[in-house]
Amino acid sequence: MKKITLAILTTLFIGSSAQAQLLQIEKTNGDLLELDINDIKEMRFKEAQSFDGNTPENLEIIDMGLSVNWASLNIGAENPEEVGYYVSWGGIEPKDWYSWSYYEFGHSQSSLDKYTSSDDLETLQPEDDLATVSWGSEWRMPTSAEFEELLANTTVDYAAVENGVTGVRLTSTVPGYEDATLFFPVSGWKQDGNTLNLEMLCSYWASSVVTIFPQFAFAAEFWLSGDYASEVHLSGTYRYLGHPVRAVTEKK
Predict the structure, then answer these.
(1) Rounded to a whole number, what is the distance in angstroms from the first to the last CA of the chain?
(2) Would you state the torsion angle of the CA atoms of residues 89, 77, 200, 223, taken in this order, to the nearest 10 degrees?
(3) What residues contact 161, with CB distance under 8 A and at least 6 apart?
(4) Each residue of 113-137: pLDDT tens digit?
(5) Contacts of 92 (CB under 8 A, 6+ apart)
(6) I want to staple 77 with a disulfide (CB 3.0 to 4.6 A). Which of 57, 82, 149, 150 is the partner?
């Protein structure tokens, strides 16, 4: 269920000089935003959405010593070895068919109507984020930068097994957090009605669109076998494809 709360601008003031027609907005963290008055058509308060959700009983919050904490299992899973839900990028529920014809934000790569070069949206908004919708406002999908941070500060075991399921295990290399690990079960991806590369690949959506080619969004791809065996790539992949999701939460 969604709750509506009122978003409040903390400090708002306009420069008094007639020549300097700037609107300045000071955020609570001290950041200052400036807008030219001539570029502003209308100012209004916007209601911010907050999401309630249900987290699995076996969920653990894993501190890898990084900027965000990671979930121990996938969205839609009850245990770490389960893949959980496959969704298109920006989709909030699984489907039977993954193609442009059934994509949530346009029915071809040339007819996208959200997260395009014209709307300046670079990451999924909460209402389009499977983690937020499923588990609540505390959770979201990781950005491509957060995946990069994770990969830069972990070792990867490409022959890991969890309760009989193959996958990859990431172990933190951050001093003081070397015992922290994450297991990603093998998943492949879904295209049309098929699951491809199921035994070869762990592939997970990031929340970031590829801004210069918005028909693509980023996914972390861990290859267990094949031409790219024992490699991980943060790659642009077509948004209509079905991939699982691992969530992150902000540190308290």
Answers:
(1) 24
(2) 70
(3) 167
(4) 999 999 989 999 999 999 999 999 9
(5) 127, 128, 129, 130, 133, 134
(6) 82
